[in-house]
Amino acid sequence: MDLEDRARLISLYPDGLPAFFMAGNGKGHDYVRCAPPPSAGMARGNTVTVARLILAEEAIGGTVRYRDGDRCNLRRGNLRVTGKDTAGGTASVPPEAAEG
């Protein structure tokens, strides 16, 4: 993860960053996930992908992909968004994640 993105993520969690962990999506792929920021208003027990938090607004309406195929490589240069819905889809990225 790039230092700038790390600093922004830290700012989303006033009580400290939650644990990051690997979790499957039920389709044979594991992703780095964590609890959502408190301001997201998501129910306790939900998780979000760290890559989606890093990309913030860029990820809304699209699918986050990993250029080198390594889902642990969370550097911004390794992340890209495909299939973006320009009509305005929904995503689980809190507005605060887009601030920077």
Task: Describe the secondary-structure layout.
Elements: H1 3-12, E1 21-24, E2 30-34, E3 48-49, H2 50-55, E4 63-66, E5 79-82
Antiparallel strand pairs: 1-2, 2-3, 4-5
Mean pLDDT: 86
Beta-strand content estimate:
15-25%
Count the DSSP helices: 2
Distance between the termini: 15 Å
Domains (count):
1
* Biggest sheet features: 3 strands, antiparallel
Spatial order of the strands in the main sheet? 1-2-3
The coarse silhouette is globular
Percent in helix:
10-25%
Instruction: Indicate the multimeric state.
Output: single chain
Name the poorly predicted regions. Answer: 94-100
- The structural class is alpha+beta
Region (Disordered): 80-100
Can you offer a commentary on this structure?
The protein is of the alpha+beta class. The protein has one domain. Helix content is 16%, strand content 19%. It has 2 helices and 5 strands. The chain has helices at residues 3-12, 50-55, and strands at residues 21-24, 30-34, 48-49, 63-66, 79-82. The strands form 2 sheets. A 3-stranded antiparallel beta sheet has the order 1-2-3. Strands 4-5 form a two-stranded antiparallel ribbon. Residues 80-100 are annotated as: Disordered.
